[in-house]
Specification:
Elements (H helix, E strand, L loop, with lengths): L6 H4 L2 H4 L13 E2 L11 H13 L11 H11 L6 E5 L2 H12 L5 E6 L3 H9 L3 E6 L8 H11 L3 E5 L11 H10 L3 E5 L3 H4 L13 E6 L11 E5 L1 H10 L7 H11 L2 H23 L4 E3 L6 E6 L2 H10 L2 E2 L1 E2 L10 E5 L3 H17 L2
Parallel strand pairs: 1-11, 3-4, 3-5, 5-6, 6-7
Antiparallel strand pairs: 2-8, 7-8, 9-10, 10-13, 12-13
The chain binds pyridoxal-5'-phosphate (PLP).
Length: 361
């Protein structure tokens, strides 16, 4: 038997052409690159979690429906009773489920550019066509271009993050509603940063049968647990449930997330501290020469410099890791993105950046 020993003969060409999602090493660094919440949980809650972990039935498979966790989420997030909930191993997995479910031949997944890179990558994984409609130069939604693209491509699914990543801004709700009304397919509003924005499309779910809402606990302090959720009508979620692998949310994640959700005041207080620091950082960045900063409703800030790669590298050498977006999209030329950290981390980042800007052109 002649074996096909070469990956190029077995693996799909669009996958061969992809680069794996790169996560840079961050050991020992001030880590401001991934929108993580920088705060630990209070000691009392840590102790409660330790107790739960000690006796967790890890010899058993988890509850495949995670019924208790869903009940906690419904209460904590004020999810309407009329809506169904689907849980994912992070919301990344939910994006993948939706794309797999909608991937008929030639089906289109549409988003904006720049957007969360996983929308494009997962469209490719699932063998969907990806269409990215550029934002305007001020990074707002180009509603005319969106409506034109919807008419032309008839997308099965539209993903829009609200607030958007990597730009940090909220799109206008009116524009989102126009898109939801105009599109023949479903619209997933990705509210990964809702804790820092204060607004939500949750109250629009009843009104629009093609609207789905995605949330995650990752940016609110539980990135390591991997828990995302999709909220919407069961006529959609029942179909996605068929593709969900039965034990995608583990015993530990279910137990710990429930424990933390019994103390939502802790997460809310941490989000408030992050928002205060965001205001402070926005002001300090705005006061710097050779730098332009964009407004943010998220826990990160996008800003533009004259030489992003050099500044990114210099910060890195000095032990501060942020995200370099130069080259990701023309609208992001010379752009950097920093996550709001603790006051100490932010102060160190701002002081170091200030020094670098003074010394370089
Ligand atoms: C971080 C992020 C996610 C992914 O969250 P996980 O739940 O950790 O998978 C989804 N959407 C956007 C816009 C994000 O920025």
């Amino acid at each position: 038997m002649a074996h096909l020993n070469n990956p190029t003969e077995i693996i799909r060409p669009e996958l061969l052409a992809l680069h794996a999602y790169h996560v840079p090493a961050a050991t020992g660094m001030i880590k401001l690159d991934a929108m993580e919440n920088p705060y630990a949980l209070p000691q009392s809650l840590q102790n409660e979690i330790a107790q739960l972990a000690a006796t967790a039935p890890i010899n058993r498979y988890p509850d495949p429906n995670a019924a208790d966790l869903k009940a906690s989420l419904r209460e904590a997030l004020d999810i309407p009773d009329s809506m169904a909930v689907l849980l994912g191993n992070g919301s990344d997995e939910i994006i993948q489920l939706i794309a797999m479910a909608a991937a008929k031949p030639d089906a289109v997944l549409l988003s904006v550019e720049p957007a969360f890179v996983m929308f494009r990558m997962i469209a490719t994984f699932a063998d969907m066509k990806y269409v990215g409609v550029p934002l305007k130069t001020n990074l707002s939604l180009d509603i005319d271009a969106m409506l034109k693209a919807i008419e032309q491509h008839r997308p099965a699914v539209i993903f829009l993050a609200y607030p958007n990543n990597p730009t940090g801004n909220l799109f206008e709700e009116d524009a989102l509603l126009q898109i939801i009304e105009a599109t023949p397919g479903i619209v997933v509003i990705d509210e990964a940063y809702q804790a820092f924005a204060g607004v939500s499309m949750m109250n629009r779910l009843e009104q629009y049968p093609n609207l789905l809402l995605m949330r995650t606990l990752s940016k609110s302090g539980l990135a390591g647990l991997r828990l995302g959720l999709l909220i919407g009508r069961s006529m959609w979620l029942d179909e996605f449930e068929k593709l969900r692998l039965p034990y995608n949310v583990g015993v530990m994640t279910q137990l710990i997330a429930q424990a933390v959700l019994r103390h939502t005041d802790v997460l809310t207080a941490q989000a408030e501290r992050i928002k205060i620091e965001r205001t402070n950082m926005l002001a300090q960045l705005a006061a710097m020469d050779k730098l332009a900063v964009y407004p943010s409703d998220a826990n990160f800030i996008l800003f533009r410099v004259n030489n992003a790669t050099e500044i990114f590298q210099t910060l890195k050498q000095k032990g501060i890791l942020i995200k370099n977006l130069d080259g990701a999209h023309t609208l992001l030329d010379n752009c950097l993105r920093v996550t709001v950290g603790t006051p100490e981390e932010n102060a160190q980042f701002l002081a170091t950046l200030h020094t670098i800007l003074r010394e370089k052109v």
